[in-house]
Amino acid sequence: NAGVTQTPKFQVLKTGQSMTLQCAQDMNHEYMSWYRQDPGMGLRLIHYSVGAGITDQGEVPNGYNVSRSTTEDFPLRLLSAAPSQTSVYFCASRNRGLNTEAFFGQGTRLTVV
Amino acid sequence: TQLLEQSPQFLSIQEGENLTVYCNSSSVFSSLQWYRQEPGEGPVLLVTVVTGGEVKKLKRLTFQFGDARKDSSLHITAAQPGDTGLYLCAGVPGGSEKLVFGKGTKLTVNP
Fold first, then answer.
1. Residue B68 CB contacts under 8 Å (≥ 6 apart), including other chains
2. What pLDDT does A1 receive?
3. Taking all residues of chain A, what is their mean pLDDT, rounded to a whole number?
4. What is the DSSP letter of A57?
5. For residue B74, pLDDT beyond 70
6. Among A112, A111, A105, which residue's Cα sits nearest to residue A43?
7. How far is CA A35 from the centre of its chain?
8. With the CA atoms of A76, B36, A30 and A67 taken in that order, what torsion angle do they form, in degrees rounded to the nearest 10?
9. Which residues pair with B70 in a beta bridge?
């Protein structure tokens, strides 16, 4: 049971570089989202998607892009990395609905130097 | 602006003690969820409370949803070192599809 798979697990970038964090789920969930977790800040929503071809902004979207071409995949792109984007990133998926359980990947620890 | 406010932010107690963690909002939620996260892992769902005034028990953990559906609490009886972790409350605000989280309570239970 793969669930939600994130790659890579660790990444170091130089300021100004771009990269894509990958997220894939095999549970046929319609809803996928990206969060960042910083010390003392909990999980803050970056972008989310309610289905293929549909994306929307969360609480902290600046500096990130997403697309959802398939139900399974929801990549997160950093356009020009900044030190403020140093964080742990989590991808999650769930069925649509107000009370459904969110399943998380194991996270990507990103450091921007 | 954080929709869900959790308190306390940090809690360090001795094995066997009881504790309560709070999750408060000025907004009404159709439901609230509690997740537990261990270092290096993603959060894992503990419980979902749906009805105002609802109480759910999971072994030594008791979850309550406020009557007005704006707050929730997590009570742990006779805490054990295995309860150590980050406890997060989460919910979908009215009229939204977004699942938002509080800042979390970092619990340490010392043997």
1. B28, B52
2. 66
3. 95
4. E
5. yes
6. A105
7. 6
8. -10
9. none
Q: Are B69 and B28 in contact (CB under 8 A)?
A: yes
Residues whose CB falls within 8 Å of the CB of residue B96, separated by 6 or more in sequence, listed in order = none
Amino acid at the residue A5: T
Residue B26: count of CB within 10 angstroms of its CB: 10
- Please count the other Cβ atoms lying within 10 Å of the Cβ belonging to residue B41: 15
Interface of B with A (CB under 8 A): 2, 6, 9, 30-31, 33, 35, 40-45, 48, 50, 88, 90, 92, 97-104
Smallest Cβ–Cβ distance between A42 and the set B33, B40, B103 belongs to: B103
Side chain identity at residue B25, one-letter code: S
What is the rounded (10 degree) CA torsion for B100, B106, B107, B111?
A: 150
In this structure, the number of other CB atoms found within 10 A of the CB of residue A27 comes to: 14
Are the Cβ atoms of B98 and A45 closer than 8 angstroms? yes
- Nearest alpha carbon to residue A61 among A42, A77, A73, A72: A77
Q: Does A59 touch chain B (CB under 8 A)?
A: yes
State percent of chain B over pLDDT 90.
Answer: 84
In three-state secondary structure terms, A17 is coil
